[in-house]
Amino acid sequence: MPQWLNWPLVRQLTGSDPLGRGTAARSRRTEDLRARTEQADEVVRSVCPYCAVGCGQQVFVRDGEITQIEGDPDSPISRGRLCPKGSASRELVTSPGRQTKIRYRRPHGTDWEDLDLDTALDMIADRVLATRDATWQRTDDQGRTLHRTMGIASLGGATLDNEENYLMKKLYTALGAIQVENQARI
Fold this sequence. Notes:
The protein has helices spanning 8-14, 28-32, 84-87, 90-94, 117-135, 162-175; strands at residues 42-47, 56-62, 65-71, 102-104, 113-115, 136-139, 145-156, 177-182. It is of the alpha+beta class. The protein is elongated and about 95 Å long. Its EC number is 1.17.1.9.
């Protein structure tokens, strides 16, 4: 059979697909392609991390690596749809530019250095406690009891669930912070 008989236009004009949207448009390479979702070992349900809508996602995993993220058709919020940012959220995990180490630049420094997790957490805790101590208000100008700090505030993220917000509110209240807010509004 001559090779030109296998061209898409010839298949479209002579076959059962005159609009060229089915078999006429398929090549040998197209037939060999498989969806990344078919190769997954497991599918994990998740929530898109970008905004307050909370669209459901299906995360397809193979050999411990994310291969694809798609909208979850069982989600009552998004019904299987994702916006462009949600559709590209796989890049949050798989991008070669993603930072996987704790990076720190000292005050007035010009170079970044890597820190281990324990050191970074100790630095954060020391700074939170120092800020709390430096800005602690036991009483106001009229002698009324306050027991608060205005030096620590929290702005929660849009994808925190109720339980996470509850725990964060408890933490900041225990520190004496009264400026606790969440931007999860539509």
